[in-house]
Amino acid sequence: MEPDLLTQARTWLAEDPDPDTRAELSELLRTEALDEIADRFSGTLQFGTAGLRGELGAGPMRMNRAVVIRAAAGLAAYLAQQDTARGLVVIGYDARYKSADFARDTAAVMTGAGFRAALLPRPLPTPVLAFAIRHLGAVAGIEVTASHNPPRDNGYKVYLGDGSQIVPPADAGIAAEIAAIGSLDDVPRPDGGWETLGDDVLEAYLARTDAVLTPGSPRTAHVVYTPMHGVGRDTLTAAFARAGFPAPTVVAVQADPDPAFPTVAFPNPEEPGAMDLAFATARELSAAPDIIIANDPDADRCAVAVPEETSGDWRMLRGDEVGALLAAHLVRKRAHGTFATTIVSSSLLSRIAAAAELPYAETLTGFKWLARVDGLRYAFEEALGYCVDPAGVRDKDGITAALLIAELTSELKEQGRTLSDLLDDIALTHGLHATDQLSVRVEDLSLIATAMKRLRDQPPTSLAGLTVTTTEDLSQGTAALPPTDGLRYHLAGNGTIRSARVIVRPSGTEPKLKCYLEVVVDVPGTDALTTARTTAETALAGLKTDLATAAGI
């Protein structure tokens, strides 16, 4: 090991404010765990448009109080440069390990820097923080959360005064200020002086949730709900009660916040097995529920499952399907404004918007981009994120999305119909837009770079028997999009397949290579739906196989 790494570790130990990480690092030094020390001190956790996110532990490559204090001090310095007159900074946090500590440290740093700092009263959904920024006129907001990452992780998400997450060049500006922070002893951190908000801001948020529903609309949907050991339960059940829906049946063993997430391998509704206990709860009820709803741990995402008519079991809807259902519902509610989604989400939204003569926009991945669309009325991304009230929450919001999907379910129920029936209608009108993902989680991040290089050096000319008509290297940017590390392929149709599209990109928040697949199949009539689905499934399977081969993954 480089001698300077040991020096760095001892210097870190001397100023670490957290007894837990001090004890951890002391033990590593005592046992001469050189590889582990090198892993923690061979770089710095980088601040970007997703803020900070990483594994908890001692050292600059981990999430810990020292890293958070530096991040808060750098953010304070950046805000001071923006002529914010030392305004209000609102801080929220989830129920993960160390979240409350990180939030208090941030409040202390902001107070020491001359800002007015206000903590949310307890662990609450991220959408409540995003709402509070706009509602209170704050100059910035911070949410301490790692969203749906594994239990060992935590994160630090930054919003500016318009209530949307940071984008370039703000991320680089904040990162530069963080890098300029020297000793923690030089960062003023008073023992008090910040405000802890009461429930007024939560009540204001809940009052706002009513605005997404149509006055007098049916509110009869019976829902099984899981907060997946996160912070969504109390806020969602309160919102449902205010709106007049039946009380959701909550999955008991996942009801309370628990940073260990003991019943799931990954606390992400998209992960295999994550919804199993919700499905089991629905099966045990004497009266079958109409839908199942899940939030991720910080409740900014919303998952929906529907009963399968043939098997009697439950099927998790893809984010693209829920996105289309909400769009169709908003169109029927005569919503006005721009409908938007991301380049990796289904192109179906563009057709729904065009048919309704509504503006449409497409952005890079993430609500940090979607929130900035001019005239935004509705946005979604395939990763279970939906913004249905941009005037209130300029970010994805799993609570208001759940209310709106419950309203739609109730309206269809009165007609003797289901969400699945509406998806059939949409396919008949616009073609079947079938989507899937090839997602590869890695321990060695170099494997992702190798796969991207291979695809750039040897671009595929056909996938699943479909000809690749255009290949775009998104790292070069386009007329409509800033540069991002990704590749996009458009494929020609073949027979009943109208077209296909593939996008490959490294995940911005997890050690994954993600490939987003879409096949559009013409559906000439109701009797052709089954055949169209089979055609799409076969094509998607072929795309997965051929793309994995092309990427060497």
Determine the fraction of residues in helical runs and give it as a percent range.
25-40%
Strand content: 15-25%
CATH arch. level architecture of the largest domain: 3-Layer(aba) Sandwich
Strand order of the largest sheet: 1-5-4-2-3-6
Tell me the distance between the termini. Answer: 32 Å
Counted beta strands? 21
- Identify the CATH homologous superfamily of the largest domain: Alpha-D-Glucose-1,6-Bisphosphate, subunit A, domain 3
Structure summary:
Helix content is 37%, strand content 21%.
Characterise this structure.
- The chain has 553 residues and is of the alpha/beta class.
- It folds into 3 domains: 3-202, Alpha-D-Glucose-1,6-Bisphosphate, Chain A, domain 3, CATH 3.40.120.10; 220-427, Alpha-D-Glucose-1,6-Bisphosphate, subunit A, domain 3 (Alpha-D-Glucose-1,6-Bisphosphate, Chain A, domain 3); 431-551, 2-Layer Sandwich (TATA-Binding Protein), CATH 3.30.310.50.
- Helices cover 37% and strands 21% of the residues.
- The chain has 17 helices and 21 strands.
- The protein has helices at residues 3-15, 19-30, 34-41, 65-81, 99-112, 126-136, 170-179, 200-209, 233-243, 276-284, 319-332, 348-355, 367-370, 398-414, 419-430, 446-457, 529-551; strands spanning 52-55, 88-93, 116-119, 140-144, 153-160, 195-196, 223-226, 249-250, 291-295, 302-307, 314-316, 338-342, 360-363, 376-381, 385-387, 432-441, 462-463, 466-473, 487-494, 497-506, 512-521.
- It has a 6-stranded mixed beta sheet with strand order 1-5-4-2-3-6, with helices on both faces. Strands 16-21-20-19-18-17 form a 6-stranded antiparallel beta sheet.
- Helix 6 (126-136) packs across helix 8, helix 11 (319-332) packs parallel to helix 12 (348-355) and helix 11 crosses helix 14.
- The longest helix is centred in the last third of the chain and has 23 residues, at 529-551.
